[in-house]
Amino acid sequence: MKFSSARPWESFNSLFSFVHEDIEKEVEDKPGHYLGHHSEALYTSLVDFYRIMHHPSVKGHWVDLGAGIGSSALLYASLFPDRQAQALEISKARIEAGRRIQKQHEIHNAQLLHCDLLHDPVPVADTYFLYFPTGIVLDRILNLLYLRQHPFTLIAIESHGDLLSRLEQERWLKPQGSMKLESVRHHPEAIFYGTNFSASVNTHRPFDISFQAKYLFIKELDQEWIGESFGLTYHAENKFDLLTPPRTIEWSSVQKVADLHEIPQHLRLSLGLRRLGELQISTPSGKYAGIIRKITVKPGFSVEISTGEKIEWAHILSIYWGTILCYDSSLGFSFLPVVPL
């Protein structure tokens, strides 16, 4: 593909024609797919990509993390035939649309991959591009890149107003420059980061467990209760939002981070039951229906359900999930159904 010398991205724009709305009709409405976004919100403009790719810090193997139809990888591969480019995207419909363009124009040095960045490998690269919201997927990516200790350049464009402040938490990422964007974004510049793996990094950070199944023992006033790390989201300064149970906590209140096998046996059933959803709980004083939210372990073992009632575990006679008996104190019986994820 040859580009005009005056406005080279326009040559690619004519080549790279697609109907965004038609592609989006095939995109699944699932978390992380960002269905319903306009093309301008979902994609970085080609003129911005072109200028970014000619920045002196951009070199070697290019990887776009969350790439849509893979426009950046196709452009990079076309601009630099001697380099490799990869696009990683969770939506199969978007990736297949990009592959059709790739095949039509015989772009051989690009690879468009359908993958889930919460679970799948992140390729080793010289340059990574992020136009990404914060959250557990980003936490996992940054954790992998740090542990790998392979130097690279990272280019970030602010997508929702908190990406750059999140990247500031990674002391091993060092801003090395910026570039003004033609497109209107939350932050008017693309930021270029390098790596400094000798920087001191706390290895017990909430960002490093937000995508893992860990259990947090949280002390607030005279109580200690158990939250779960999966889905932990940076809120502000020392504050984080829990997914399970839905609470905002201060990270300094976390006394211990544990794996399931480190949790006392008598607490494990309540943690499993919390995942099931609505339960029917019987006590000598009455019956309750609701979802277990807060599990308190000190000063006594109790559960708080979604209706607001707090129930001491020692007073529970039985617990049903639908018609399935999960706990009966008189029989010393407990059963935790296996629920598909």
Overall body shape: elongated
**β-strand number:** 20
Query: Which consecutive residue ranges, at least 5 long each, have pLDDT under 50?
Result: none
CATH top level of the largest domain is: Alpha Beta
Describe the largest sheet: 10 strands, antiparallel
Overall average residue pLDDT: 90
* Percentage of residues assigned to helices: 10-25%
- The assigned CATH architecture of the largest domain is 3-Layer(aba) Sandwich
Structural class: alpha+beta
According to CATH, the homologous superfamily of the largest domain is: Vaccinia Virus protein VP39
Approximate strand percentage: 25-35%
Distance N terminus to C terminus?
Answer: 45 Å
Give the total of domains: 3
The helix tally amounts to: 9
Looking at the structure, the CATH topology of the largest domain is Rossmann fold
Radius of gyration: 24 Å
List SSEs in N-to-C order: HHHHEHEHEEHEHEEEEEEEEHEEEEEEE
What does this structure look like?
The chain is of the alpha+beta class and 341 residues long. It folds into three domains: 8-195, Vaccinia Virus protein VP39 (Rossmann fold); 206-258; 264-334, SH3 type barrels (Roll), CATH 2.30.30. The protein contains nine helices and 20 strands. The chain has helices spanning 8-15, 20-24, 39-42, 46-53, 71-79, 92-104, 136-148, 163-167, 265-274, and strands at residues 62-65, 85-89, 110-114, 127-130, 153-156, 173-180, 189-195, 215-220, 223-228, 233-236, 239-242, 247-250, 254-258, 278-283, 286-298, 302-305, 310-312, 318-321, 324-328, 333-334. Strands 8, 9, 13, 14, 15, 16, 17, 18, 19 and 20 form a ten-stranded antiparallel sheet that branches. It has a seven-stranded mixed sheet with strand order 3-2-1-4-5-7-6. It has a three-stranded antiparallel sheet with strand order 10-11-12, with no helix packed on it. Strand 18 and strand 19 (324-328) form a beta hairpin.
